Amino acid sequence: MEATTGGNPSTTDRSSDRSLRIEHLHKEYRAGEPVLRDVSLTVEGRGLTAIIGPSGTGKSTLVRCINRLVEPTSGEILFRGQDMVRLSGRELRAARRRIGMIFQEYNLVERLSVIENVLCGRLGYVPVWRAWLRRFPDADIARAFELLDAVGLGDLATQRADQLSGGQRQRVGIARALMQEPDLLLADEPTSSLDPKTSVEIMELIARRASASSIPALVNIHNVELARRYADRIIGMSKGSIVFDGPPQALEDSHLLAIYGGEGWLE
Amino acid sequence: MSDTSLSARPQRLAFPPNWPARIGFTVLALYVLYAGTVVDITWARFLTGLEQGSRFLSRMFPPNTAADKLALLHNGMSESLQIAIIATAVGVLLSLPLGLAAARNLAPAPLAWASRGLIVAFRTFHPVIVAILFVKAVGFGALAGMLALVVASLGFLSKLIAEAVEEMSMKQVEAVRATGASFLAVVIMAVLPQVMARFIGFSAYQLDSNLRNSALVGLVGGGGIGATLFTAFQRFDYDFVLTIVLAIIGIVMVGEIVSGFMRRLFQ
Fold first, then answer.
1. For B61-81, what is each residue's pLDDT tens digit?
2. CA torsion, ordered B228, B232, B237, B241, to nearest 10 deg
3. A124 in contact with chain B, both atoms CB, cutoff 8 A
4. How many angstroms separate the Cα of A77 from the Cα of each of A82, A85, A218?
5. What does the pLDDT read at residue B241?
6. B181 with A93: Cβ contact below 8 A
């Protein structure tokens, strides 16, 4: 197996550091049936890292452990100088707001408007009464409009989210994640519910925005071709473990066989 | 091969007999016949009843519209309206937190079960029985009637909110939680948008139902038009009774139109 993880540069200053270090992460939903087996992984503070692997191999669980939408069974997740696994309450929320997440089914609040959905990205920053009365700070509103322009939905700000197409919804999802001013972007199968053309556009957008904000992105993805095309680094997972880790050009058919198993499908 | 296996198979029934249902309906029919003989409903008894009824009806016509009676009607009616509207408003305000606390996908289990217990207690007795209790506790008048209807509203609305919250999409909630939003912010931006339209529909229905029940609680001492009606009965003012009944029918119809309109408005 290839292993070009590279050295860990995070020995420098801690809180401005955007790298993510996962150590011996283990997750069992039911005792004795591990979904993640001792996963260790360092994502440097830049670039797009794609995680590929068959369904049910723990990719989604891995990404969700990072912002604790899923509780890890054991291990460490070091981000911004803190171990995410040990945080709770206010500290956990403060850490979460620095991690933007993009979902497979967009997960917009359907009955809110597009701009309200984008402003949800500020909920970790503004007091609750501001959200209740929709009195978000002017700077936040201006930035929400900017982001909507940037993802090409400037004219749809006051539309209700359930009126949008899949591709448009995912763009709102991206804007919401960016609205958090994240230090890390997570995406869980962001293109799996989209048609091939829209998938390419969405991946393009994620890659471009992540590099424009110079933040790392960690993207679960089914589509190997999209991963090759947009990722700076590919991680292959099988049965809860990392079985490939390297640049896209190093990913060969033999690796794909190791990741997905079987043979005939490759021809 | 397939032929022999087909003919070897026992005869198949498209509509197999549902024996539990057949037995159940037979038992029910037999019980109705038995109960009819036991409660002593005879043809002669029915005819005397009809005769009395027609005498009662003829004494009701024409409805009494004397000025003093109309003043009584107006007083009773406006008190009933106040009872119904205040009870609905208080019930709506209190039922929102109680309903959220009873939703098992949001509240921790002990709180959810305690809240459910409270809701069951509120729903156990008919508003008339609750009204009798309050009349004994706080004395005759509008306060007792209002409290009885608050309890009824609280039971009904909290239960429906809890159910609506349990049916909502957790994906939307998860996405807002991932932004680092506090629990209250999640409720405001992800939970309420999903259940608000239904909640307003329930509240409109409850207003409608409180209008009807406000006449009922008056009969047992809870004030309002029910008290006026009860007095009229006791004084054998059957023509005034008819006036009151017609007025109640009018109010209930108006209430139904208003609540239907509200429900459409917030669809």
1. 888 777 788 888 888 888 888
2. 60
3. yes
4. 8, 6, 14
5. 87
6. yes
Question: Going by CATH, does the domain composed of A16-98+184-261 fall within 3.90.870.40?
Answer: no
| Annotated domain spans of chain A | 16-98+184-261, 101-181
Flag if A107 and B185 touch (Cβ within 8 Å): no
Nearest CB to A123; choose among B180, B193, B197: B180
Contact criterion met (CB below 8 Å) for B120 and B134: no
Quick one: which of B159, B151, B265 has its CA closest to B213? B151
The per-residue pLDDT for range A42-59, each reduced to its tens digit, is: 998 888 999 998 888 889
Closest CB to B180 among A97, A105, A173: A97
- Give me A243's structure tokens: 């079985």
A41 strand-pairing partners: A22
Instruction: Sort strands A217-220 and A184-188 into parallel, antiparallel or unpaired.
Output: parallel
Measured distance CA(A178)–CA(B24) in Å, rounded? 62
User: Tens digit of pLDDT for each residue in B216-242?
Assistant: 888 888 788 888 888 888 888 888 888
pTM (two decimals): 0.79
How high is the ipTM of this complex? 0.87
Asked whether A121 and A151 are in contact (CB, 8 A), the reply is no
pLDDT digits (tens, 9 = 90+) for A7-21: 444 444 444 578 899
Domain annotation for chain B: domains and CATH numbers: 18-60 (no CATH), 67-266 (1.10.3720.10)
pLDDT at position A264: 67
